[in-house]
Amino acid sequence: MREKANSHFPIIFMRVLLFQKINITNLTILLLFQVNLFFSCTKETGREKEEGAIVADLWMRPRPPGVRMVSIYGKIQNNGSYERKILSWQSSSFSSLEMHESKLDEKGIMRMKEIPLPVVLPVGESNWEPGSTHIMGIGAVSEKEEEAFLEVQWEDGKKSVWKVEIRK
The organism sits in which domain of life (predicted)? Predict the structure, then answer.
């Protein structure tokens, strides 16, 4: 969406028509001036940025034969100006999806626990990496190795579809 600046084009155009000889050169200059004025005096309202605020680059490793679970990693970039909260997610490739976090306990053993769905910070990046935060795809529907798609339900009612690539 753009807000148009007030333009004096009709007044200038009438002056040229009434008080000067009109020729193609004057008319061309006047038209170029008007086009330049229009594009330099409009501003974005910010909605253009907000609509595509989340950028996801997700990946998973190839699953060994017979394994029905996979960890999904990647980066989520919130380019918007407000906090976004994921209410739910699903995938036709897995029977369920869970957010997990791996941490070393006091004995030095890596422990994984389920955590509530993440809140992506304003103008921030969340990194989901091996050995830390990641999505667990549980109960792979197909034995065949293929990319997956996650459908994300946001707190504001909007939905996104994220592609998960297979990377070695």
Answer: Bacteria
